[in-house]
């Protein structure tokens, strides 16, 4: 079983899967603010201090994300690529806005299929 770390005062959970993929899951309805993003990135760097790992971000139940939080996520950190997992047209718009405006430092793609997201992450 994966060890799960609480992030941002319990607003999210982060784990390192047996396949080496980091998995970040935001709590339902969470409004992600700058300090939440900093907390998540700090934990990512603690879990993977020696090399960058792929990251699966489950945003299916999360609320919105502040502009400052998106800036934090766009900066370089301990990930090699990022798969954003959503399920609705709104999730897709948020992901497209993030990748288009904030220009993340790592390859970032949006998926509605967890299997497809994991396959893409494993391929990199």
Radius of gyration, taken over Cα atoms and rounded to an integer in Å: 13 Å
- Calculate the terminal CA-CA distance, rounded to whole Å: 24 Å
Q: Return the string of H and E elements.
A: EEEHEHEHEH
- Mean pLDDT, nearest integer? 86
Using the alpha-carbon principal axes, give the shape.
globular
Q: Helix proportion of residues, in percent?
A: 25-40%
Low-confidence stretches: none
Largest sheet: 6 strands, mixed
Number of DSSP helices?
4
Q: How is the secondary structure organized here?
A:
Blueprint (H helix, E strand, L loop, with lengths): L3 E4 L4 E5 L5 E5 L7 H14 L5 E6 L8 H8 L4 E7 L3 H14 L5 E4 L2 H9 L2
Parallel strand pairs: 3-4, 4-5, 5-6
Antiparallel strand pairs: 1-2, 2-3
Keywords, please?
alpha/beta, six-stranded mixed sheet, 124 residues
Any overview of this molecule?
- By secondary structure, this protein is of the alpha/beta class.
- The chain is built from four helices and six strands.
- It has a six-stranded mixed sheet with strand order 1-2-3-4-5-6, with helices on both faces.
- α1 links the parallel β3 and β4.
- α1 packs parallel to α2.
- The radius of gyration is 13 Å and the shape is globular.
């Amino acid at each position: 079983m994966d060890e799960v770390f609480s992030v941002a005062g319990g607003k999210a959970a982060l784990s390192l899967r047996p396949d080496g993929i980091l998995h970040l899951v935001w709590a339902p309805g969470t409004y992600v603010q700058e300090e939440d993003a900093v907390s998540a990135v700090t934990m990512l760097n603690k879990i993977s201090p020696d090399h960058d790992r792929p990251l699966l971000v489950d945003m299916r139940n999360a609320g919105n994300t502040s502009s400052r939080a998106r800036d934090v996520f766009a900066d370089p950190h301990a990930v090699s690529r990022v798969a954003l997992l959503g399920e609705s047209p709104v999730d897709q718009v948020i992901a497209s806005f993030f990748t288009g405006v904030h220009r993340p430092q790592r390859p970032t793609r949006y998926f509605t299929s967890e299997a497809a997201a994991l396959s893409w992450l494993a391929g990199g």
